[in-house]
């Protein structure tokens, strides 16, 4: 049987036509998908501008499905998950990016940094620490160290915090000198609680020599010496505080007066407190401590009156009235109770950064975790 070449002549044009149709279909499909991906992307941006995070996430997921190789879409999606509090999905997105072999080194560092932020927001501090440590030597090194510093402060690992702060000191990130002093004071407090008072005392004595303008170092040293029964040397530490950082003297004015009386040298405290009143604005704590050193109540009332002449103060007025003595009459007791209640909120300390108020003075604000954000003055004096 002979082969009919006529069929071959018909088959070649037919195959060519089918191939051309298939290519046109693929091209149209590719163009359609290409139009859909940016359309979803811009739709997501529009939702973001309208603060519609859920709709934006849906749009970006659609865009990622159309173009799974685009890293920027993954970063946008991961950041949205984190902002919404969906940390598990944010971690999966950034871990997927890190698992890609075609990711550039710059995007890899960026993904690592984003993953560390996911762990931080989720409260997984150990995993965040590991992720941040891997950013050493990258463009995110300074940011990673600041985040590590916050982690070590939260976990009260003062040795590691000090090591990170010393590295940041030379990176144009501001001065960490005072913060390092706080870390050493915290370390000394830990040693003291462990019964290692000799080591704690040596640490503080070295610290005041290295950072003499650290008010906390002098106050901690004075408290340590007093707890060991060395009242005379504790008094000397407070006198040194008045020389180096006099603005913090109101915090220890009462202890200064008390310890001077215990040493039978009230004139030493009187001299320091009087010098402060002459050089600085009136202070309620300084005035009250100085009044406690006066030979009689009337002399103390004169000090409160002088304070009122320089600066109006409801608390000082209350002290002045109390110095005159309240009788046992019910009406007088009611007046005393009303004044005490009105004065109580004015005696607190307030954080200058977040406004958190407390009866006691904090070196680190419990609200915003900032260091040295509490002025050494009462609310009424600010």
List keywords for this structure.
382 residues, mainly alpha, Serine Threonine Protein Phosphatase 5, Tetratricopeptide repeat, two-stranded antiparallel sheet, 18 helices, 2 strands, 1% strand
Describe, in plain words, how this protein is organized in 3D:
With 382 residues, this protein is mainly α. Helices cover 70% and strands 1% of the residues. It has a domain at 22-149: Tetratricopeptide repeat domain (Serine Threonine Protein Phosphatase 5, Tetratricopeptide repeat, Alpha Horseshoe), CATH 1.25.40.10. The chain contains 18 helices and 2 strands. The protein has a two-stranded antiparallel ribbon with strand order 1-2. A hairpin with a 6-residue loop joins strand 1 and strand 2. Helix 9 runs parallel beside helix 11 (215-227), helix 12 packs antiparallel against helix 13 and helix 14 runs antiparallel to helix 15. The protein is elongated and about 120 Å long. Mean pLDDT is 81; it is low at 23-37.
């Amino acid at each position: 049987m002979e082969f009919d070449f006529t069929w071959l002549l018909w088959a070649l044009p037919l195959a060519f036509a089918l191939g051309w149709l298939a290519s046109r279909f693929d091209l149209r499909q590719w163009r359609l998908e290409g139009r859909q991906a940016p359309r979803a992307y811009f739709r997501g941006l529009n939702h973001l501008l309208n603060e519609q995070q859920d709709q934006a996430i849906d749009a970006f997921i659609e865009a990622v499905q159309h173009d799974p190789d685009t890293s920027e879409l993954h970063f946008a999606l991961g950041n949205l998950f984190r902002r919404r509090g969906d940390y598990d999905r944010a971690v999966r997105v950034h871990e997927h990016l890190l698992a890609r072999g075609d990711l550039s080194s710059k995007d890899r560092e960026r993904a690592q940094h984003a993953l560390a932020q996911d762990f931080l927001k989720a409260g997984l501090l150990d995993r965040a620490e590991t992720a941040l440590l891997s950013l050493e030597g990258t463009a995110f090194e300074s940011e990673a160290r600041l985040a590590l510093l916050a982690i070590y402060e939260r976990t009260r690992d003062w040795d590691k915090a000090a090591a990170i702060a010393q590295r940041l000191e030379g990176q144009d990130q501001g001065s960490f000198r005072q913060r390092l002093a706080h870390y050493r004071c915290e370390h000394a407090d830990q040693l003291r609680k462990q019964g290692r008072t000799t080591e704690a005392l040596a640490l503080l004595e070295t610290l005041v020599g290295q950072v003499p303008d650290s008010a906390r170092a002098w106050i901690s040293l004075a408290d340590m010496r007093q707890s060991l029964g060395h009242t005379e040397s504790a008094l000397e530490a407070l006198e040194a505080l008045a020389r180096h950082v006099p603005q913090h003297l109101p915090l220890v004015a009462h202890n200064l007066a008390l310890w001077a009386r215990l040493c039978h040298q009230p004139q030493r405290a009187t001299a320091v407190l009087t010098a402060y009143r002459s050089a600085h604005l009136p202070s309620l704590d300084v005035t009250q401590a100085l009044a406690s050193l006066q030979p009689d109540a009337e002399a103390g009332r004169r000090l409160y009156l002088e304070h009122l002449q320089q600066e109006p103060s409801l608390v000082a007025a209350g002290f002045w009235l109390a110095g005159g003595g309240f009788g046992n009459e019910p009406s007088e007791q009611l007046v005393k109770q009303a004044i005490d209640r009105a004065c109580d909120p004015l005696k607190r300390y307030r954080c200058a950064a977040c406004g958190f108020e407390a009866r006691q003075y904090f070196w680190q604000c419990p609200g915003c975790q900032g260091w040295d954000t509490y002025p050494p003055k009462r609310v009424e004096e600010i």
